[in-house]
Design brief:
By secondary structure, the protein is mainly beta. The chain has one domain: Hypothetical Protein Aq_1857, Chain: A (Sandwich). It is built from 1 helix and 9 strands. A hairpin with a 2-residue loop joins strand 8 and strand 9.
Length: 127
């Protein structure tokens, strides 16, 4: 399945597997998917499946799927934090965050778990 949405004035192609579609159809409330771009010692991309977030700033893809982009940063850079537990994050006040909005998001559902990945740059074949 596929849809195109707009986040911060940029088009984002959202694709999800047939397994994800089946799982979405069983949900009582929309799945909240957050594309997180962490700026710290290193840059890290992560797709988070939220249940604890307020649904503000999320864009409907389908009635059962909402997506948002969230650039974040850590308050301090400690190399020891990179492999361990999650460090406290804060929103990153990028002046032009639209420049970092992902071009493509893929969502899957396997063995009872949601997974996802996103691309910031368009792929070579135009995707």
């Amino acid at each position: 399945m596929m849809a195109t949405i707009e986040i911060l004035g940029k088009s984002v192609r959202v694709e999800w597997s047939e397994a994800a579609e089946k799982a979405l159809n069983k949900l009582k409330s929309p799945l909240l998917v957050e594309m997180e771009l962490l700026f710290s010692c290193l840059i890290r991309k992560a797709v988070r499946f939220r249940q604890d977030s307020l649904p503000e700033n999320f864009v409907f893809v389908t009635p059962q799927l909402k997506v948002r982009f969230r650039p974040v940063m850590t308050k301090a850079c400690r190399i020891g934090d990179l492999g361990g537990a999650e460090t406290p994050l804060t929103d990153f006040p990028i002046k032009k965050s639209s420049a970092f909005v992902p071009k493509h998001l893929f969502i899957d559902y396997r063995r009872g778990q949601w997974s996802g990945e996103f691309q910031i740059a368009a792929s070579v074949n135009g995707g």
